[in-house]
Amino acid sequence: MLKPRSTPTRELVNLDGLWRFGIAGRVQDEPWTGRLDTTLEAAVPASYNDLFADREIRDHVGWVWYQRTARVPRGWADERVLLRLDSATHQGRVYVDDQLVAEHVGGYTPFEADITDVVRAGEEFRLTVGVNNELTNVTLPPGTLTVEQSGRRKQTYLHDFFNYAGLARSVWLYSRPATHVEDVTVVTGVDGAAGTVDYAVRTSAPADVRVRAVDVDGTEVAAGTGAEGSLRIEDVRLWQPGAAHLYDLVVELVDGGTVVDSWTESFGVRTVEVRGTQFLINGEPFYFTGFGKHEDTPIRGKGHDDAYLVHDFQLMEWIGANSFRTSHYPYAEEVLEFADRHGIVVIDETSAVGLNLAVTGGLAGAVTTPTFSPETFNDQTQAAHAQHLRELIARDKNHPSVVMWCITNEPSSNEEGAREYFEPLVQLTRELDPTRPVTYAVVMFANPSNDRIADLFDVISLNRYYGWYVANGDLVTAEDYLERDLRGWAAKYDKPILMTEYGADTMQGLHSLWDIPWTEEYQRDFLDMHHRVFDRVEAFVGEQIWNFADFQTTRAIHRVDGNKKGVFTRDRRPKAAAHALRQRWLGLNGVK
Ligand code: GCB
């Protein structure tokens, strides 16, 4: 699905701002049929949970309602009119006046509705959006709903981040010509000094297609006609990690000499390949440095915020990080566009986190119920996962920054049923995008002898907590365990190995001379120990620390107002480890 954009043939109205807001039970039934009966207003984009001084809202389970009016610009009489929600976490229902126009399940991918037949150019309409935050065994991420003796509904879940919900990304009204570009796919290659650009344009109706590739200064560097084809850019400037270069592909639909739709897609020319134990970008070995991140800030929760976006990327540059993983869900498209423009490498992850009944919030529990079974994660979960992959890859396939798909975080890959669950999903990912490697983040209890799925993937991405959940406070033992573990994977698989998580909770301002977990010194020494080991293992292609910044989680005895494994605090101040990392990463410069 194309991100709405203003073009010579399309117009765009942003519907962000303050919307009337209420939780189900406190507003009228069928709230879309009239003015929402509330005095509250919620900011969009933002998760609603932390906006109000109201515990019931923060912990509400079920539907909440957002409402505002919007006016269709009067010049849109001959256009199709669409509404686009960049996300509604985790389920959305959209009403224009009394009419349901869209419904979507999945909290981190966009959806839209053609509302031409229910609105009129120049007139106002009432826009009501219901958002539901419930998680079950067939949603991604999954969760469990229970009813307490008091009758209160409660949501529990297996992932270690707060279940922020609401309209955390932008909402748009846009116009589109009746005959229009529906989708554009760009696949690039390198041929000597030239770049090759294979493109495919899907149109809503038969039309003549012409395309041209344009450089940043506006110079046309290649052109072609037809819905599919290949362009050649001589003396191409590649998109490189740390040195982004983007071109525009201008796509025009022409009918009898008139341009009926015009769409511009940015692209970068680059290649990605896994060869043996190497991860190659543009044919050169690439070593990932960086973090697993979260969309998480005070007050806004998971709400997209351009100021944090700029600042986070500034901090990544300052510290020498060349990459991050969108743990544990697809991030706002603005984040990927920024990464495209600034040469930051992205591992794009799905929201399939928590497919593991042996983990709770990072801690291992006894497996009492099988993870994959008709009662737990089943065919319906797998179907939701497949649908999520389709939506994610459709959304993100043209971003040069995205170099790999991570289709799940820490599933129970050592359990029976894992292979049956994942094999078709890996296959689907490869069909949807044959150009990018595929990985999954491997949980600590899956090792080279009991893991059942690693051979299906291109890169082995390990989440390991030696010195934290195992051998806590004993970095000598932890070093030994870590090295054996990594060497075990390297001995079994001829594949690149990447560390996608390692980290130690750290309270900013807590210090000690000794190996005391939670201190700033311990975090620094813990990371140093890991880096010594990584430098000794040949198949190693990168290190992404858990986490970039402290983030909010659900309540748990091992969480102090959230997870504190950030190298930066939640308000983005550096802990001591940040300075040590900076020394290492600026020195490495993406090559080990
Ligand atoms: C993990 C999870 C991550 C947690 C982290 C932790 O393995 O992938 O979501 O936050 O551990 O800190 O426990």
TrEMBL record:
PANTHER family: BETA-GLUCURONIDASE
Family per record: Belongs to the glycosyl hydrolase 2 family.
Keyword Hydrolase: yes
Gene3D superfamilies per record: Galactose-binding domain-like, Glycosidases, Immunoglobulins
Domain Glycoside hydrolase family 2 immunoglobulin-like beta-sandwich positions: 179-270
Ranges where the Glycoside hydrolase family 2 catalytic domain occurs: 272-586
Gene Ontology terms for molecular function: beta-glucuronidase activity; carbohydrate binding
Keywords from the named record: Glycosidase, Hydrolase
GO biological process: carbohydrate metabolic process; glucuronoside catabolic process
The UniProt record lists the keyword Hydrolase: yes
Protein name per the record: Beta-glucuronidase
EC number per UniProt: 3.2.1.31
Domain Glycosyl hydrolases family 2 sugar binding: 14-177
